[in-house]
Amino acid sequence: MKLSKLASEIAESPTFALNEEARLLRERGEAVINLGIGEPKNKTPIAAVLSSGAKLTTGDVKYTPPDGLPSMKKAVIRYTEEAYNRLVAPENVIVTNGAKQSLFNIFYSILDPQDEVIVVAPYWVSYPEMIKMCMGIPVIVTPEDGTFTPRFEDIERAVTSSTRAIIINSPNNPSGAVYPPELIEKIVNLCEKKGIFMICDDIYHKLTFDGVTAVPAWNFAKKDIESSNVIVVNGVAKLYGMTGFRIGWVVAPRKLVTVMTNVLAQTTSCVSPIAQAAAEGALNGLQSVVEALRLQIQNNRDVLLQEMKTFNGVRLIEPHGTFYVLPDVRAFNKNSVEVSKFLLKKAMVVTVPGKEFGMEGHIRISFAGSVKDITEGVSRIKWALDSTSPNEIYIGDKKLVRDWM
Ligand SMILES: Cc1ncc(COP(=O)(O)O)c(C=O)c1O
């Protein structure tokens, strides 16, 4: 069978693969704890349920305009004004099947073969694969100082005549880092000067802790929205915990939105109106649900940090946003795939190898789940890796003794 070389070389999504492995183990009766997936445990906000329910009961569920229902776009415009202090027109907005489709369509719409996109490590797993699917070249910039914040000089040095965009995700998945405003300002200026796009993946932008805020790139943009280099991606998956509704959106110059609309219309026609109505409900409903989720996640992070304090050998940079932490586990094993496999086999805990995020020697732990899972999960990880922790543990109703160190 002859398949596309380009498509065949695209890597499997490691988070979804691990999730499936955890599900199968659970089905076999194993007491698996999933600290791999970035998915809050909350129920869908009631305003979203009512709004999508109302749409469904009309029985009028048809194609929508490819760029989104006018009422959904209106909700996005209001959100953009409130959260970013930026007034945009409906022509600047496109609604997509999750932020994932937003990102893919952006790359597809701005890249020609061999064009380059600068990606800052640690990065979300899908960026390099999406860029490659669009025949572009991901150019990875990695901080060399052991932090998770890139140096501006390194980004600047990576720009070539083929660079079309720089993608920034702050708060950052997988590190939880929130980039300082000065760095954002410098990148905006660089992009304006060089005429390249700055893609801001803002999917976690309100999920920050300790009074730290993610300063929007638009605050520093000198150009108006139509000639701006800033593209903002957002969605309801993380802030409202509505991962299954698959709603994302892009706010960008209308010239780009027009091209993206054609791409979307020719590939998926439009986004389900039931899901759009749900997102509309969430955006127009009580915003205290976002703050409630943020507080719960911050509490989870505090619990996790407390548990990690007694973890010998592990190096950790406190996350100030998202629901992930990326501890350095090189003291145990430099190969993060081996560490994650070992943790799943011995401790029945799912983590994601840092290698997938361009940060070998680290593992990503998600604290989006329950406090019980976080405390039990971390104590199992300590038991498996840290020889100074007690060498007996209960996993489910099985008492296990550590016999490998
Ligand atoms: C950084 C980042 N961007 C985009 C997405 C995709 O979001 P969605 O579920 O809306 O497609 C994710 C999901 O994990 C993410 O972590």
Strand order of the biggest β-sheet: 2-8-7-6-5-3-4
Q: Using DSSP, what is the number of strands?
A: 14
In the CATH scheme, the class of the largest domain would be Alpha Beta
Query: What is the overall silhouette?
Result: globular
Report the helical percentage. Answer: 25-40%
CATH H-tier superfamily of the largest domain: Type I PLP-dependent aspartate aminotransferase-like (Major domain)
Question: CATH topology of the largest domain, which one?
Answer: Aspartate Aminotransferase, domain 2
Series of H and E elements: HHEHHEHEHEHEHEEEHHHEHEEEHEE
**First-residue to last-residue Cα separation:** 47 Å
| Whole-number count of domains | 2
Radius of gyration: 21 Å
> How much of the residues is beta strand, in percent?
5-15%
Mean pLDDT across the residues is 96
Query: Could you name the ranges where pLDDT drops below 50 across 5 or more consecutive residues?
Result: none
Please tell me about this protein's structure.
The chain has 405 residues and is α/β, with parallel strands linked by helices. It folds into two domains: 5-43 and 288-401, Aspartate Aminotransferase, domain 1; 46-284, Type I PLP-dependent aspartate aminotransferase-like (Major domain) (Aspartate Aminotransferase, domain 2, 3-Layer(aba) Sandwich), CATH 3.40.640.10. The chain contains 13 helices and 14 strands. The chain has helices at residues 5-8, 14-27, 46-57, 70-84, 98-110, 126-133, 152-158, 181-194, 254-267, 273-284, 288-308, 336-347, 371-385, and strands at 33-34, 93-97, 116-120, 137-141, 163-168, 197-201, 230-235, 247-251, 324-325, 349-350, 352-353, 363-366, 392-395, 398-401. It has a seven-stranded mixed β-sheet, with helices on both faces. A hairpin with a 2-residue loop joins strand 13 and strand 14 (398-401). Helix 3 (46-57) runs antiparallel to helix 10 (273-284) and helix 4 runs parallel beside helix 10. The longest helix has 21 residues, at 288-308. It starts with a helix and ends with a strand. 47% of the residues are buried. The mean pLDDT is 96. Pyridoxal-5'-phosphate is lined by residues 38, 98-100, 124, 169, 173, 201, 203, 235, 237, 243, 248.
